[in-house]
Structures are given as C-alpha cells and as structure tokens.
Amino acid sequence: MTSLKSPQLVIFDLDGTLVDSAADIQIAANHTFLELDLPEQPLTQIKRWIGGGAQVFVEQALHHFGKNEWFEKTYELFMQCYRALPADRTIMFEGVQGFIQCLKLANIKMAVVSNKPHELIEPILKHLDIERYFEVVLGGDSLAEKKPSPEPLLHVCRQLDIKPENSWMVGDSSKDSQAAANAKMPFVGVSYGYALMASDIRPQEVPHTVVDNLEQLIPLISVETNAYA
C-alpha cells in the first residue's frame, strides 16, 4: 500500500527523522565510555543504538561491552554528559524546514513523538528554532508506554481531536512503523535515518511510502483544511 491522502495531523519522530543528532549522542556516549574505561565507539555503531530512547541506548551499549550490570551508573553518567550539550552539533535533515513550513501554511497540525527523554527534546527544538511548529511534544518518558506502542500516537490524536486514519506518522525505524501500524495510522518512512533495513519502514498493514527527502511529500499536501469533510 502506498496511497496516502493529505493529512490533518503529521506526527514526527525526532532523531533520524527531523534531526541528525548522532554526533551529539556520540560525544556524550564516548565521554561516558572514557569515564568507565570502555573503548570509544565510531558513529556507525552509535547510530545502531539510537531509536529506543536513552535507557535502551545504554542497555545496548553495555550489552555490546558485556557490562550489563553497570546500567545505573552508566545511564546516570550518560544523561549528565548529554544534558550538558544536547544540541551542539545537531542539525535538521535536508528538506525538513521546507516540509514543516508547507504543513504550517496548509494549517496542518504537527507533533513530535520521540522515545528520547522529554527533557532532551525541547533544547534541540529550541536550538534549531522549530519548537513553534509543534502543538504536542512527547518523549519516551511522557506516558506509561512508548513506541512501538500506539499509545503515544493515539494520545496526540485524542489531544488534538483528529482521527488516526486522518494523520501521518513519519519516522525512520521499525519502532515508528510498528507504532503507526498498531495505531492504524498511515506511515511515511525516511530512507536517510538510522534504520538498518529498508523493510523496517514499510509496514504492510497501513498506507505507507518511503521518501529520501521530506519535500517529496509536498505535492501530497492539500491546502484545504477540510480535506476529510
């Protein structure tokens, strides 16, 4: 299924979708690893651990090192390092600014649903001067469940009084595509993110497509605010 109708709401993942934050995460992670006498990791490895939130990131790193019992002190140290510089090298992916501006002009509501701790999301949005575009921002710790649970997506829909089938979820990972499928929400996968396999972002259960640049979606956006009337 690839047919998508113009939405009333677009929900975005953050890391790997709106922003390339891997360099800042790598700096925080490698500072953490050095403090613990663990080897620094290349960017390619860091990207493999992004997507499940900070706790999952640390769990995967420690599993890689065979140090699962170090979780509490490692997580505390990683968060301390990441809070210090959450957006120093983080940039928007090409096409993001043009697409969210298009949605704004079309009166289509926008939200961010990330598995990243909420306290780290706002500094990034503010640093990039895009926080004003999003009416709802949820982190992985904002609700009792996070992606791939559909609950964060459904929570946004309830808050904005828009049906899931009239919305899009845009993301780069299997957690994003599974959350959309579980919510019965159309999905847009981005090929430039951190997913290891293209199949991760092609959920067969819902209308979907995959793009290399979000501006490729602009022709699908209707300027009519009552597209589903």
CATH class of the largest domain: Alpha Beta
Structural class: alpha/beta
CATH architecture of the largest domain: 3-Layer(aba) Sandwich
Topology pattern, helix = H, strand = E: EEHHHHEHEHEHEHEE
Structural domain tally: 2
Topology-level CATH name of the largest domain? Rossmann fold
Radius of gyration: 17 Å
Largest sheet: 6 strands, parallel
**Subunit organisation of the chains:** single chain
Gap from first CA to last CA: 23 Å
What is the CATH homologous superfamily assignment of the largest domain?
A: HAD superfamily/HAD-like
Silhouette:
globular
Annotation, overall tally of beta strands: 8
Question: Are there runs of 5+ residues with pLDDT below 50, and where?
Answer: 225-229
| Total helical segments | 8
Catalytic activity: 2-phosphoglycolate + H2O = glycolate + phosphate
Cofactor: Mg(2+)
Protein name: phosphoglycolate phosphatase
Pathway: Organic acid metabolism; glycolate biosynthesis; glycolate from 2-phosphoglycolate: step 1/1
